[in-house]
Amino acid sequence: MLNVRVNKQLRDFGLQISLQVDPGEILVLFGENGAGKTSLISMISGLLEPDGGLISLNSHILYNSDSGINVPTEERNIGYVFQNYALFPHMTVEENIGFSLTCRGFLKEIIHKRVHEWLETCNLTSLAKFPVTDLSGGQQQRVALARALIINPDLMLLDEPFSALDMRTREQMRYELRDILKKSQKPAILVTHSIRDATSIGDRFLFLERGKIIREGSIEEFSHMSFEPDLHAYTCVKQ
Question: Closest by alpha carbon to 191, among 81, 50, 43?
Answer without folding.
Answer: 81
